[in-house]
Design a protein that fits this description.
This protein is an alpha/beta fold. The model has no long low-confidence stretch (mean pLDDT 87). The relative contact order is 0.14. It starts with 17 loop residues before the first strand and ends with a helix. It contains ten helices and eight strands. Helix content is 41%, strand content 18%. The longest helix has 17 residues. The chain has an eight-stranded mixed sheet, sandwiched between helices.
């Protein structure tokens, strides 16, 4: 699969376009900061998909999209706000369907991409065989526990080829469509997706870091959260339906 193709005149390769797809739900406390940062990174599209927020999330996103549309010298391309039925998989699929870009990067609303994110993705996909990839993750906490957890996540992901949504998964659009997008399940959609994705071709594990919130680990306690998350993943791997696991997942949100 080529990283880029010729223009209609056959003279030069067309530039690869990248869309950031961001599902949101009641993220008003961090969304403005994330969007302000993301819109400076040079992506061709930023698509925010709200799943029915009850706080100011939707209005904050709309305000940024309007500002982006009126900026005479925008640092990035377009920014749009869509709505979808609640559920991260449904929101991600809605955003992907609305984009015409060559590459889709799925970003959580509490995660900051590195300043070189666009270049890092393009470099990763300069390998024509690569179908997608993910970033390393680092938490926004200086606690030793946070550093240990993120290091283990990165090592586990590199070893297994499976990534979580915290790691800003990216994929070629054509591959995403061939796969049928994210499975319509209430959780583990990222695990399911990357498990299927790695069967289609090589994934690139970038050493560049995204910075994500440590809040859910701090709220429930790091050890308790780790045990719950790994229990959920073990149950999922042995075949327990994600709909049955949804109740337990709410304990670590």
């Amino acid at each position: 699969m080529a990283a880029s193709g010729p223009n209609h005149d056959g003279c030069s390769p067309a530039p690869i376009t990248i869309a950031v797809i961001m599902p949101v739900l009641n993220e008003s406390r961090c969304l403005a900061h994330i969007l302000a940062h993301t819109q400076t990174l040079g992506f061709d599209e930023v698509i925010i998909v709200d799943g029915g927020s009850s706080d100011d999330t939707f209005s904050i996103a709309q305000s940024f999209a309007k500002q982006c549309g009126t900026d005479p010298l925008p640092a990035s391309g377009s920014m749009r706000v869509l709505t979808a039925p609640r559920g991260r998989a449904r929101q991600l699929n809605t955003g992907a369907a609305a984009s015409a870009c060559d590459v889709l990067l799925f970003l959580h609303a509490d995660t900051l991409l590195p300043s070189n994110a666009r270049r890092a993705v393009l470099t990763a996909l300069s390998n024509a065989a690569a179908v997608g990839g993910r970033f390393n993750v680092r938490f926004d906490s200086s606690r030793l526990t946070a550093r240990i957890v993120s290091s283990l996540m990165n090592v586990r992901s590199r070893w297994s080829g499976i990534a979580t949504g915290d790691q800003a998964i990216f994929v070629r659009r054509a591959v995403f469509e061939t796969m049928g997008g994210f499975a319509d399940i209430p959780l583990m959609e990222d695990i399911d997706f990357t498990r299927r994705l790695k069967r289609t071709g090589p994934l690139v594990s970038l050493s560049d870091e995204v910075v994500t919130a440590f809040r859910r680990w701090e709220q429930q306690g790091p050890l308790r959260t780790i045990l719950l998350m790994w229990t959920l993943r073990f149950l999922y791997w042995i075949g327990v339906n994600p709909h049955r696991l949804q109740h337990f997942y709410s304990m670590v949100r």
